[in-house]
Description:
about 220 residues; alpha/beta; Rossmann fold; eight-stranded mixed β-sheet; 6 helices; globular
Amino acid sequence: xxxxxxxxxxxxxxxxxxxxxxxxxxxxxxxxxxxxxxxxxxxxxxxxxxxxxxxxxxxxxxxxxxxxxxxxxxxxxxxxxxxxxxxxxxxxxxxxxxxxxxxxxxxxxxxxxxxxxxxxxxxxxxxxxxxxxxxxxxxxxxxxxxxxxxxxxxxxxxxxxxxxxxxxxxxxxxxxxxxxxxxxxxxxxxxxxxxxxxxxxxxxxxxxxxxxxxxxxxxxxxx
Length: 223
């Protein structure tokens, strides 16, 4: 496995991203960041996908900005230009298809990135599988009837950002749009339970199960 920062065409320019590649190129997976930016945790997730046989690309949607401060993260989160993010994700998926095996790629996102994974799936037929980890962003509105791939949603029971009612509404919207989906909520867990860099919310058992579900979902739909 190897990893490197790369650049790809997007928005009439270039966007950077972290690319993790297995020894033999595997199916492509977009790894879409939380509101912290392209931080070490997201790079580590891309590395994990590469170790599992996927070619993983994490695009830098904040274009060089990242933070460990919740206040600063909130500002970056709300300042996200949705049109630009769409083009960044489209450019990333197009680039990924040139270095991975197969023409379709998966989209896996966390928090803000989870909502963007759904958004990307609604904007590009290149997305062949979508995984939404507790996705949230008030300004990102996926066009659910336009999604043409299976969706896996992974949520936390005690999530103050994505409460059970929001998960139920997502299921209703996906069902009404005819989108094949599976939504799973982990009991007694909090938002960002998958992030092992945040011990105050990380849940090892839930994170392990969510990872296994994610890998199965991608392998089944990107083979």
